[in-house]
Each structure stands twice: as C-alpha cells, then as structure tokens.
Design a protein that fits this description.
This protein has 154 residues and is an alpha+beta fold. It is 22% helix and 39% strand. The chain has a single domain, classed as Roll (Thiol Ester Dehydrase, Chain A). Strands 4-7-6-5-2-1-10 form a seven-stranded antiparallel β-sheet.
Length: 154
C-alpha cells in the first residue's frame, strides 16, 4: 500500500479491491465503500495527523460518530482494481468536521462522499470541543504548502 500525506490538504492511499469487498456480480458491494472510507479516516488520523486513532477512541474516550453522509456512485470497481482513496477537510467547526472523500480508479472517479463527524465524549455521547492537539493537527494539515510526503513502506 502507498500512503501519501499532504500537509496542503489531501491525504491519499492506494487500496487494492479484494474479494471480500465484492458481491456475486464481481463488483464492490456499495456498503464496502463506507468501510473503506472509515479505514481511510482512521489512517488519516494516525498517519496523516499523527494522532493515534485507537488511542484517541480507546484511552482518551473521544467518540467520532458520523452524523451526515452523502454519497454519489459514478462507476463500478472490480476485484483486483487499484483505487486511490483521497480525503480533504471541507470545514472544521467547534465540535464537527466535514470531510470530502473520493475513490478514483485508473479510469476516473468511482465514488464521492461528504461526511460530517462530531467529536463526542464516549462516556456521555454528547458533543464536545475538539481536543487542542487534534484541532491543531487538523489546522496544520489544512494549512500546509501542498507538498506530498510519500511513504511506500506503510
């Protein structure tokens, strides 16, 4: 897998479409795109922002539930395809975050998603402000110069 973290506002990785992603027609079963998007967000936190996602949710008890999800499917993906998942921050609010995600194949766009997550306390399931380190990391990610850092061994 190749991961490219862009300080200028995009986080990308290449993902091979696997047998487990596909339905009997041999194409990605649409809910699998939501799973791939969630994995990509977790990788972005850990690899792109430097905030360990498992630690954030587990030890720190910060919840990141999805409160809105818009999706547009534009082309099919088949087992064996290499697709690029990409993430950009559209909006950072006091306790919310709007992300634009897309999945592209060699032939162009496959899926576009717009996802809003809210920062919550897992003990109360109520919204809370972003922890200072998380907010700072997201702001840094959004405000960089756009130079991609590639890590082919990740």
């Amino acid at each position: 897998m190749t991961i490219a973290a862009s300080a200028g506002g995009r986080f990308e990785r290449v993902q091979r479409i696997r047998f487990a992603h596909c339905d009997p027609a041999g194409i990605v079963f649409y809910p699998q795109y939501f799973v791939l998007a969630q994995y990509h967000i977790e990788d972005w936190f850990t690899d792109g922002l430097g905030i360990d996602y498992a630690d954030l949710v587990g030890r720190r008890r910060v919840g990141l539930p999805t409160v809105s999800l818009q999706t547009e499917f534009t082309a099919v993906s088949r087992m064996g395809d290499a697709v690029t998942l990409s993430l950009a921050v559209e909006r950072l609010g006091g306790s919310s975050l709007t992300l634009a995600l897309d999945v592209r194949g060699a032939d162009g766009p496959r899926v576009k998603l717009r996802k809003v997550i809210v920062c919550t306390r897992l003990d109360t399931h109520r919204a809370q402000a972003w922890p200072d380190d998380v907010r700072a990391a997201i702001e840094t990610f959004r405000g960089g110069d756009g130079a991609a850092i590639r890590n082919p061994g990740a």
